[in-house]
Automatic annotation (TrEMBL):
HAMAP family: Mrp_NBP35. One of its GO terms (biological process) is iron-sulfur cluster assembly. It comes from Devosia epidermidihirudinis. InterPro entries: Mrp-like_CS, Mrp/NBP35_ATP-bd, NUBPL-like, P-loop_NTPase, YlxH/NBP35. This is Iron-sulfur cluster carrier protein.
Amino acid sequence: MADLELAARIKSALAAVEIPGGGDLAGYGGLSEIIVTPSAVAFAIAVAPGMEAAFGPAREQAQQAAQTVAGTRKVMVSLTAGKPPAGPKFSHGSPVPAGKTAVPGIKRIIAVGSGKGGVGKSTVAVNIALALAAEGLKIGMLDADLYGPSIPKLLGIEGRPAIREDGIFTPHEAFGIKAMSIGSMLNPDQAVVWRGPMATSALRQLLRETDWGDIDVLVIDLPPGTGDIHISLFQQAEVDGVVIVSTPQQLALIDAKKAIDMLHRLNVPLFGLVENMSYFIAPDTGTRYDIFGSGGAEAAAADLGLRFLGAVPLVMSIREGSDAGLPPMVSQPDGPEAQAFRAIARTILANDPARQRSPEFSKS
Ligand SMILES: Nc1ncnc2c1ncn2[C@@H]1O[C@H](COP(=O)(O)OP(=O)(O)OP(=O)(O)O)[C@@H](O)[C@H]1O
């Protein structure tokens, strides 16, 4: 069945779902677009703040109704509290604060963000994850960069994650770490627009409806900048700290400042700053060239009140290896690039305030 036809049939099925205040879900102004991918169907129901509990049964019925039509595709339906949808006003229901809840099986979460795109955030996130694994920790990786997912390519992952009978995802495994990415759910050429509520809903389900097993650290690759995904993640899960990636150029640092300001406002701890594409190592002689001058990132980190976590060189092998699904931590685990990532991972572990609180997180 064509995707559009399936979406239309699901919408018709939603006409049987009654919503609080009267009317049916198909005609409800808060129903998002119904996104159909080869393995999943996703839509969101936006409700006025405080109405989440009242809409719970409607969400469940919607899930069942959609699943009946969607066959083997996994159906993801979420409730998002936000702008009250156009339509009838509701007066009952008390505010239900979302609250942060632990993700089953996951001890710690480290998120990797950046002020702007293209600074190498995903590359750094993957290699930090692998470097933490090399320290003996059990690592999961979640690609939350829903608008430009690159983890499948970086880790050489192909195909879609398996789905258990109860609808829970089984994560991919690559180089000893578990990984989930919205990228695995999409066709490479498919231009899917993950609108706000849809994206936050997909993230919640990738995070919480995946059988992570027993994970010491989940590394989350955030989208660049600041937006709904960040706010949704930081509101729903206890993130132990964020690593900000920046290139040496001043502009990127100014953008990084905006991201840092947002994290402060959301009360999310920061691990510090990684400077990527920081210096150049000549492939023939191994000589290091500080092409942007040296010390800029340390000074910038200090200005921003951040710890400087380390610098990663600009080297062709990082780009080539990443494009081939072979990160430097795997292709040359003792090379200078891998050493840079190991040093950053160790600095993160050494400065994780939670290590003092949590004795089981002490392998490093
Ligand atoms: N240290 C490096 N040396 C050489 N190339 C690098 C380095 N870091 C990243 N790259 C290359 O730069 C490009 C962008 O990297 P990456 O996708 O990790 O950036 P990003 O900040 O996650 O981007 P996006 O915002 O699109 O998610 C990729 O081609 C990657 O291989």
